Amino acid sequence: MTAPIRDAARPFTGESLTALLPPGLRLLGLGEPTHRVEAFPDLRNELFRHLVEHEGYRSIALEIDCLAALVADAYVTGGAGTLDEAMARGFSHEWGTIAANRDLIAWMRTYNEGRPADDRLRFYGMDGPLEISHGASPRPALTALHDYLAPHLDLPWTRADLDELLGKDELWTNPAAMMDPAHSVGRTPEAEELRLIVDDLRALLTANVPLLTAATSSGEWWRAELRARTLAGLLRYHAGMAGPAPTRMDTMLALRDTIMADNLDAIVRREERRGPTLVFAHNSHLKRDRSSMRMGGRRSEWWSAGAIVSCHLGDRYAFVTTSFGGRGADVPGPDTLEGILSSLPDARSVIDPARLIEALDKKPAPRVPADYTYAALDPSAIDQTDAIVFIKEI
Questions:
Q1: What H or E segment, with its residue span, contains residue 283?
Q2: Per the structure, how many domains does the chain have?
Q3: 84 partner at 20 to 30 Å CA-CA among 1, 127, 311, 350?
Q4: Together in a domain, 85 and 49
Q5: Predicted model pTM
Q6: Residue range(s) defining the domain that contains residue 145
Q7: Could you report the per-residue pLDDT of 22-35, keeping only the tens digit for each?
Q8: Same domain, 58 and 126
Q9: Which helix or strand (DSSP H or E) is residue 73 part of?
Q10: Looking at the structure, do residues 128 and 269 belong to the same domain, yes or no?
């Protein structure tokens, strides 16, 4: 390894990472290259504690169902219930079983004890109510939204009307619809009518925000708007599942990241007066350049949530990508970027992308990982990141 490459790196600490970030951030994206590897959420927890204690951050968002996350947030901010209940009901994708996530929720609850409400840490989900195998039924969110509005506005729909349009929940959650649009109910006449109703409910929420916040609270209105926004995205996603075009998977991937981007924009607006937000998700959801994946022999491409919010926030958004070297027998080649960075002396390093580009005497070869779920560093996109965090071995 040449000296300039060593000079581009520092041992990982919260201070060494934030030193590379632009001032005035509202949203810091910390990506992980693959899920369910303890090293990355552990590093996230360490960084978040530093950001809270030294940089004024007051919230974090994870790649989980934004509606389920309301349960975990209620616990974090001092609500009733137990940690076990928060982990079981406040996470999607079975990520409540991850030890680092449990540590995060427990630490946030402890930190918030005795603090005024406006200074307490908040916990968010950035994803929609979407699992790998299916999308959720709109019923829970639509029922809650109707129940919020009904005592204060003269709505033209009853819960019975909505139930009739919704039909059976198992029709919405049918896993066969993921690969076969014929099994989706996303474009039935009932689903199309529900999309119009949700659009009208969102308009009512906005038009009556002074009345509704006075009658309830700003927090309750925000949660109602979250449900309305989520319903609109969820119904669009179900319609995408029902699409017959060969590009339907591209559409579904793009719609999911659009939901994520809408949620992140809303979080930034809500947290504007309190402090910046850390968001932790897969690199493919936070990167600035175009995302891609191969499924069923076909390559899909779409713009990620990070690419979208970066256009909205400009230099108030920063993206930190993470990667690793060895993972058992999966060792990167010496001519790959991961192979080059594996020669760094520290177990965890923070790399300045600009200095790394200057230090490289030739373009590294792309890594072909043994694990298809791992997104290798793209040597051509180094300039699209504000910092790289590299773990030598996991």
A1: helix 283-286
A2: 2
A3: 127
A4: yes
A5: 0.96
A6: 139-244
A7: 999 999 999 999 99
A8: yes
A9: helix 69-76
A10: yes
Q: Which two tokens stand for residue 14?
A: 């919260």
Number of helices followed by number of strands (H, E) in the chain: 17, 10
Say how far apart CA 18 and CA 3 lie, in whole Å. 23
How far is residue 36 from each of residues 40, 100, 114, 120, measured CA to CA in Å?
8, 10, 33, 28
- From the number of C-beta atoms within 10 Å of its C-beta (0-12, 13-18, 19+), residue 318 rates as buried
Read off the tokens for 96. Answer: 């409540």
Does residue 186 share a domain with residue 104? no
Looking at residue 17, its amino acid is L
Domain boundary among 200, 220, 244: 244
pLDDT score at 368: 86
Cα gap 167→147, rounded to integer Å = 19
Output the domain CATH number for residue 78: 3.40.50.11550
Residue ranges of the chain whose pLDDT lies below 70: 1-2, 296
pLDDT score at 256? 97
Best CA proximity match to 394, nearest among 5, 1, 31, 34? 34
DSSP assignment string, 215-260: HS-HHHHHHHHHHHHHHHHHHHHHHHHT--STTHHHHHHHHHHHHH
Render pLDDT for 192-245 as a digit per residue (tens, 0 to 9).
999 999 999 999 999 999 999 999 999 999 999 999 999 999 999 999 999 999
Amino acid letter, 341: L
